[in-house]
Structure formats: C-alpha cells, structure tokens
C-alpha cells in the first residue's frame, strides 16, 4: 500500500506542477475530477490487485472490483482534495484495507509535503515512522478545529454549517484543510485538535484509524459509532476535550439516519 501510494504520489505530482493546464471534469456541483485522479486510481488498482488478486477494491473514480474472497477490501481515494489539487494546493492519497467492517490498516500520503501517515489496528499511528498522539490540550481557547463545507444541495445536514460562527467563537481557530483524509491525519498528529465534516467514508477510513490509534475519539455528530457515520459521513474525530466540545455544539443538528 505504501509503495503504491508513493508511486501514485509521483504520478500526480507530475500533473500538479502544471495545475493551471489541467483539464477539469465536473461530476456534479462542486465535484471535480481530472486525468490525474483517474490515472492515480488505475495505478493503485494495478499495484494492489496484482499482489492480492482475490481481494476487492472500491475506489472513487471507477466501478468497484469484486474479488473472489469476500472478506478483504481496499478503499482508495486516489486524490483526496481534488479541488485543492486543481488549484495547486496540498492534497493526499489515501488507502485503507478492511476485513469485513474492520479497518486493519491505512495510510494518508501527502505528496507535496512528502508526508506518509500510517496506522495499523492495535499497532499505533505514525508519521514517517514516528509514533503519533493527538493533542493533549484541554483549553477551549486553544482548540483548532478543521472542517469542510459540503455542496449545499448534496448535504444531509445543511443546518450544521449555519453554526460555524458559534462553533468558532470561543475557540482558537477553524481551518479548512481541503482534504478530509489530511484533516484526520492532522488531528492524529496534533496539528488540529479536532475535525468535523459531512464527508465520504472512503475518504476518511484510513484517517479514522489514524486518529483512533493516536488516542483520539471518533463518533458521528450525535455520539454514535461506525454503523451510522460510515453511512451518513457526519463525522467527528478529535482529542477528548475537542470531541466533547464539538458534540455539544452539533448534537441538536436534526438527524437524518440512513434507511
Ligand atoms: C473531498 C475532500 C474535501 C472534503 C470533501 C471530500 P474528494 O474529497 O477532499 O476536503 O471537504 O468532503 O472529502 O472529492 O476531493 O476526494
């Protein structure tokens, strides 16, 4: 997985250096794609499935591949932060390996910064091999919270973002990193104290494991576990103090549970 992500990093950086010349496809309102996304996913598919031909793979740009072994599945976002990418800003490549509903390991790779975040279930979270821990800060005034703004007509919970001003008021800062996977990685290493967004599970599966393995807390906006946030994408990942703060701010957002 690491080798595939590094190779995809090199490939996408080639395009990134000429971001102004990219041809941009529009999948939906505010949802972009470029040749770099597709080439990156194809490369990662080839690398992973030639090594593990019986396993399945779900990526962002193509139909899923169903292997003969129903247990193991790779989740791949070949460029998380496509909008960042096409504007020449930091993006990531993220891959998670799942067995059933359990994420066994995952990575978030930022090719621009050449930072490789990795996590193994029960084995810790790392940045370039160095062990990570979420921020130990409990001071509300120092909290740094990441988020992202969903396309309004695609959002299940548009009301949440009307609270951004109130959420921001007492804390140190709100940041939009522009890649959900990178935002999770930033929580795991303490560059953010927390992150909340309505986002896709394929973008965050590896990042969630990073935060869990770095001692953080992961729930949906109402304090519930994976069976809900994997479907709705209404995610909080944070250190314990920021998690409590965000839960308090978000818990009265009207719920819309998946069928
Ligand atoms: C997107 C992220 C973006 C976040 C979106 C989505 P994509 O992924 O990069 O930061 O706001 O919820 O996760 O479409 O670029 O892979």
From TrEMBL:
It is an enzyme of class 3 (hydrolase). Its EC number is 3.1.3.25. Its cofactor is Mg(2+). InterPro entries: IMPase (IPR033942), Inositol_monoP_metal-BS (IPR020583), Inositol_monophosphatase-like (IPR000760), Inositol_monophosphatase_SuhB (IPR022337). Keywords: Hydrolase, Magnesium, Metal-binding. It comes from the Bacteria. Pfam families: Inositol_P. It catalyses: a myo-inositol phosphate + H2O = myo-inositol + phosphate. CDD domains: IMPase (cd01639). Belongs to the inositol monophosphatase superfamily. This is Inositol-1-monophosphatase. It comes from Devosia honganensis.
């Amino acid at each position: 997985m690491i080798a595939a992500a590094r190779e995809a990093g090199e490939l996408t950086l080639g395009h990134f250096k000429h971001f102004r010349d990219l041809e941009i496809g529009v999948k939906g309102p505010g949802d972009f794609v470029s040749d770099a996304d597709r080439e990156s996913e194809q490369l990662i598919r080839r690398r992973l499935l030639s090594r593990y031909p019986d396993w399945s793979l779900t990526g962002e740009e193509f139909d899923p591949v169903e292997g003969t072994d129903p247990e193991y599945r790779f989740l791949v976002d070949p460029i998380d932060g496509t909008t960042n990418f096409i504007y020449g800003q930091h993006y990531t490549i993220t891959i998670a390996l799942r067995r059933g509903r359990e994420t066994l390991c995952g990575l978030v790779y930022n090719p621009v910064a050449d930072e490789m975040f990795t996590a193994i279930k029960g084995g810790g979270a790392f940045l370039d091999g160095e062990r990570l821990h979420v921020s130990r800060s409990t001071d509300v005034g120092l909290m740094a919270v990441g988020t992202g703004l969903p396309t309004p007509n695609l959002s299940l919970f548009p009301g949440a973002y009307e609270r951004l001003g109130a959420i921001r008021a007492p804390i140190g800062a709100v940041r939009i990193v522009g890649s959900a996977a990178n935002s999770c990685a930033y929580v795991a290493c303490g560059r953010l104290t927390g992150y909340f967004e309505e986002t896709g599970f394929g973008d965050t599966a590896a990042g969630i494991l990073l935060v869990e393995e770095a001692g953080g807390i992961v729930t949906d906006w109402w304090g519930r576990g994976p069976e809900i946030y994997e479907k709705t994408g209404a995610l909080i990942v944070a250190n314990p103090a920021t998690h409590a703060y965000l839960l308090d701010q978000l818990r009265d957002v009207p719920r819309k549970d998946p069928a």
